[in-house]
Design brief:
Distance between the termini: 41 Å
Radius of gyration: 21 Å
Structural class: alpha+beta
Number of strands: 24
CATH superfamily of the largest domain: ATP-grasp fold, B domain
Length: 421
């Protein structure tokens, strides 16, 4: 099987790595790829959102399966273009991708189909936002409607603080992701959990879970980011959590999709808050998460490429999947100004090989005369496997320190409390 991975982040590096290790994989490509994907296959100089050129290149290269990595590719309709060309795609079409690309669409979908989620108000102007907050009690989670690379959500402690933020957004015309639509949600109390489920259009099944860390600083301080680390499997949740999520979240979601004429194919990321009343959906993503994928895939075995192909062709075959009982911890190394800005880094040491069940995955980057140039922001995700969470965490941070000294820069920073529970 010849497989193309679309995207250029650490998630795509991890997907490329696991796919390349699959018995059914003959060759793996990436578009546009990064320094990591270039080590195991050809990178195509094609933007992840350019469905026309990707489809043309896939036909020329006899690609059997395309795996869509980033949400931008899904929102741009790359899956639609490829399916029109008769190419198997792991990833939803643009319409199904609205579960992620529009927080308002997703909220209304959940309300229509009885999927547990936070109480919310939808506003389209500053005046409407002020009115919605008049009688609001407690914290307010402010969510820009469109895609904002993990930076469109702000948790405010009160209605007054939310008013100040929304005034800044509307008056400056700088709502993250663009547009004028904003979702205001109550803040749920509990513990966060990410569950990944595969859906072939007719059946849906959870395959793994992780806990991620979105704030920039230790102790969950600082602004929201795309993610600063993750660990898998989650710790401290009920033993039957998969069964509960299958019954309360996944089953009604699939019923709702089918009722609305959506043939959803790919992975559904369920960002959940486990409350005293059980799981409630914080958000849906229409793709694998980053950095959760980097912590999940080292625990995944079997023929991963064949599994994704079975989903893409409407006949999900879970017999292709094996999951290790070992634990994995992933820590993100980022430039110190992330997420406020993303200063590029030049001429990094390309040797990131690690021993003892550890691995590092490149984010947006390219190889250049034996070194690596990184776009900045999140640069690497360092992962480690261990027999328990403590062992995996200790190995991950030892590897982080090893790499931090080897890369040839002191511009990188990381959280020191990933998986410290």
């Amino acid at each position: 099987m010849r497989v193309l991975v679309v995207g250029n982040g650490a998630r795509e590096d991890a997907l490329s790595w696991r796919i390349a290790a699959s018995p059914s994989c003959e060759a793996v490509f990436a578009a546009p790829g990064n320094a990591g994907t270039a080590s195991r296959g050809e990178n195509w100089d094609v933007a992840a959102t350019d469905g026309k050129r990707i489809a043309e290149r896939c036909e020329a290269e006899r690609i059997d399966l395309v795996v869509l990595g980033p949400e931008t590719a899904i929102a741009a309709g790359v899956g639609d273009r490829l399916r029109d060309a008769g190419i198997a795609v792991f990833g939803p079409n643009r319409s199904g991708g609205r579960l992620e690309s529009s927080k308002i669409f997703s909220k209304r979908f959940m309300e229509r189909h009885g999927i547990p989620t936070a109480r919310a108000a939808i506003v389209h102007s500053l005046e409407a936002a002020h009115k919605a907050l008049d009688d609001w009690q407690g914290s307010v989670v402010v969510k820009a409607d469109g895609l904002a690379a993990g930076k469109g959500v702000v948790v405010t402690p009160s209605a007054a603080t939310a008013r100040t933020l929304l005034t800044e957004w509307y008056r400056a015309g700088r709502i993250p992701g663009g547009g004028s639509d904003v979702l205001l949600e109550e803040r749920l109390d509990g513990r966060e959990l990410s569950i990944f489920a595969l859906c072939d259009g007719r059946a849906i099944a959870p395959i793994g879970a992780a806990c991620d860390y979105k704030r920039a600083g230790d102790g969950d301080t600082g602004p929201n980011t795309g993610g600063m680390g993750a660990y898998s499997p989650p710790s401290g949740f009920p033993d039957d959590c998969f069964d509960t999520v299958r019954e309360r979240i996944l089953a009604p979601t699939l019923r709702g999709l089918l009722a609305e004429g959506e043939e959803y194919v790919g992975v559904l990321y369920c960002g959940l808050m486990w409350t005293g009343e059980g799981p409630q959906v914080i958000e849906f993503n229409a793709r694998f998460g980053d950095p959760e994928t980097q912590a999940l895939l080292p625990r995944i075995g079997g023929d991963f490429a064949a599994l994704l192909h079975s989903v893409a062709t409407g006949a999900m075959d879970l017999s292709q999947l094996t999951t290790s009982e070992r634990h994995c911890v992933g820590v993100v190394l980022a430039t110190g100004d992330y997420p406020k800005s993303s200063a590029p880094l030049k001429s990094l040491n390309a040797d990131i090989a690690l021993d003892d069940g550890c691995r590092a995955f490149w984010s947006s980057s390219r190889r250049n005369n034996g070194t690596v140039d990184a776009a900045g922001g999140r640069v690497l995700t360092v992962t480690a496997l261990g027999d328990d969470l403590h062992a995996a965490r200790s190995k991950a941070y030892a590897a982080v320190k090893q790499l931090a000294g080897r890369l040839g820069t002191d511009a990188l920073t990381y959280r020191t409390d990933i998986a410290l529970i």
